[in-house]
Specification:
- By secondary structure, this protein is of the alpha+beta class.
- The protein has one domain.
- About 45% of the residues lie in helices and about 20% in strands.
- It has 5 helices and 5 strands; from the N terminus they run αααβααββββ.
- Strand 2 and strand 3 form a beta hairpin.
- Helix 2 crosses helix 4 and helix 4 packs antiparallel against helix 5.
- The longest helix is centred in the N-terminal third of the chain and has 20 residues.
- The chain is globular and about 45 Å long.
- The N and C termini lie far apart (about 40 Å).
- The relative contact order is 0.18.
Length: about 150
């Protein structure tokens, strides 16, 4: 599909253009930071370490979180750069924070079938998991959690 046709379809049919564009820009930014910044500097940007957000959210916050999840997954599935779970989680967390919605970023790890350690990141908003599913129920041990700074 040509670039002009894709652009036309984006403008014509995408209901959440601003959210999609923000997700694309943020995913690029977070990928760049992961490649070129020191990890200690990154951790300070992710939120308040060791704390969790509340387990409740309003109906409007859940609706927006669902839109964020959709936009982030659509964008990250099509980027030319690697947009795995941590990039998706950081992008979703930033979009939620911009709206003043509290969330928690979880980092976890587990051992796979071959005996290697596998890391995973996911976001929770209220009782809903926005990106990455519920890593704890998938066997990941929570290593660190970051409450979003609102």
């Amino acid at each position: 599909m040509s670039i002009l046709r894709r652009f036309y379809r984006f403008i014509r049919y995408n209901e959440h253009k601003r959210l999609t564009l923000k997700a694309w820009i943020l995913s690029a930014r977070f990928r760049y930071q992961m490649l070129y910044e020191k990890p200690a500097k990154l951790y300070n940007k992710w939120g308040i370490a060791g704390q969790e957000s509340l387990g409740d959210a309003t109906l409007d916050e859940y609706r927006f979180a669902k839109r964020v999840a959709y936009a982030v997954n659509q964008v990250c599935n099509k980027t030319r750069w690697e947009s795995k779970c941590l990039v998706r989680a950081l992008t979703a967390q930033r979009l939620l924070t911009e709206k003043g919605i509290d969330s928690t970023l979880y980092l976890g790890c587990k051992e796979n079938e071959k005996g290697k350690m596998v890391a995973h990141a996911w976001i929770r908003c209220g009782n809903a998991y926005v990106t990455g599913g519920n890593g704890a129920s998938e066997g990941y041990a929570i290593v660190e959690k970051f409450k979003a700074r609102i």
